[in-house]
Amino acid sequence: MGIRGKLLFSYAFIALVTLGVALWSLRATNTLDQAFNEVSDETLPLIEALNDLRYFGLRVVVIASELALTLGHAAAEAAPALQQEAEGGLTEGYQNFEDTLEVYRRLLLQRGAEEDMQLLEMITNTSVRLRTLLFDLIELERNKASPAAMLQKIDEVNVYQTTFIFAVDAALTAEIKRFERRQADVRHAIDRTRGVAVIFGPLSVLFAVLIALSLSRLIIRALQSLKNASMALAAGHWDTRVPMSKDEIGDVARSFNRMASALKTKSSEIIAGKIRVDAVSNIISETLIMTELDGTIRSVNPAGLRLLGYEREKIVGKNIVTILSKNSAVTAVQEWFPKLKNGDVLRDLRGAWLDAGGHTIMADFSAAGMREASGTFHGVVYVLSPLNEHRRDEA
Question: Which structural domain range is residue 86 located in?
Fold first, then answer.
């Protein structure tokens, strides 16, 4: 797998881990949101409706009982007015109770649970029966019924009042328990969200860091190997090679190894050519001086060393103008070097050369640039022929 593939794989892995964390967080958030909605849209309104229902139910009972007693002790001429007032107050109180009961019924129908319907039926039946008993109590009081009949009706009212309160309290208890369960769901969702964030968040970051470090170490190790091999190659170790992998860095390593092989072959050719040139130059009786294009002396054959009186290490590295007389040096800089750099060949020139002791040696010479296989110049070779005494005198 190439580096690009490894990077894509690591990015995909990190993306999957991040997506997993996001999905877990989304699920926990949805649970949390659902629990809050259930509490705010269902449970709390139901608890409020049940409290109102309990209040208005007890208020109806109290109003009916008080007005019944008032009717029983009122004067005969005031009875119709008090009866009308009692029925009006009871009707108003019962209307508030019916409105609250309708709100409670609507909220339960939205939720549609079976146990809710059973409690609603119990509360409704009890409230209807209680209303009937209260109006019967008022009617008995108005008709001056016997105390025994009144007590019996009051006992029935108390029984249904207790039943009504029990039904409402049972519904309140059920809603409170449901509210507590939903509170627990909310806490569980919060804890789960926190757990996902605490565990998977750092884990995803850790995985990303480990993958990045592994890839970085792989790339750095390969680049370090290439660097060390390049330094060894620059030092002349032509057999240096780097291991190859099946990725882009492996392609670079293969190119490097091919380059090293080519350099080794080229170096062998150069060394063999130099050996041949040195062998030829050593047996030539004429003086050969090889320089760089700027005039720095690269090598001098034995005939040249004898002519100029230098040891090899003393003359190699000097500029050729240092072994020319002043006039010849000026001519070399102004005329010879530019022509040689342009590829011209200098033939049958004469110059005054200086030996190691500073004595002048008159010599004819020719010079030409040395070309590489590519056609570029990489140096100059000078061929000197010292003048004999007769020609020196003529010169």
Answer: 3-207
pLDDT in tens, the chain (395 residues): 566 666 677 767 777 777 776 777 777 677 667 766 666 666 778 788 888 878 887 877 777 776 666 655 544 444 566 556 666 777 787 788 888 888 888 887 877 667 777 778 888 888 888 778 877 877 777 777 787 887 888 788 788 888 878 888 888 888 788 877 777 777 777 777 777 667 766 777 777 777 777 777 777 777 788 788 888 877 777 787 877 777 667 777 788 788 888 877 877 776 666 666 665 555 666 888 889 888 899 888 888 888 888 988 889 999 998 999 888 888 888 888 888 888 888 888 888 888 888 888 888 889 988 777 667 777 888 998 887 644 444 54
Report helix, strand or coil for 367: strand
Q: Where are the alpha helices (DSSP H) in 235-325?
A: 248-283, 302-308, 312-315
Joined together, the tokens standing for residue 252 give 């670079």
Asked if residue 187 and residue 91 are part of one domain, the reply reads: yes
Same domain membership, residue 310 and residue 186: no
Written as one string, the DSSP assignment of 43-75 is IHHHHHHHHHHHHHHHHHHHHHHHHHHHHHHS-
Per the domain annotation, does 244 fall within a domain?
Answer: no
pTM over 0.90: no
Query: Number of folded domains in the chain?
Result: 2
